[in-house]
Every structure is written in C-alpha cells, then in structure tokens.
Fold this protein.
Amino acid sequence: MLYGQSAGAIDTFTISTLAQAPSLFQAAVMESGGGVDIPTIAEAQGVYKYYATQLNCSISDVSTDR
C-alpha cells in the first residue's frame, strides 16, 4: 500500500496515475489532499523556471525538467 498525507497525498495521487502503478503497489490511500489542486504541467513548469531563475540557474540546468 502507498500512503500519503497532505502534500504526500498529492505525491500518492500522482504516482498512482502512472502506468507502472499496478506493478508497484496494490492500493493507494490519500489523506487530506491529493488530486484536487494539482497544477497543470504548464503551471508547474512556470514555477520550476521561476525557482531555477531565483537560484541563478537556467532551466537547462535542471536535469529533471522534461
């Protein structure tokens, strides 16, 4: 079972939507959040770009940005 509470519930929700999820765990429990206010990819990318800029990095420096 995968369990997440609060911000962890958002992570649990996201992980449970992956194609690999059925082979990784049999159940997912989300408490107090998860799936309601998850930003779109475009919104998240804007946050990532802002964060990288504040650290004096370019978005190409962020290896997980795809």
Remarks:
- The chain has two domains: 1-35, 37-66.
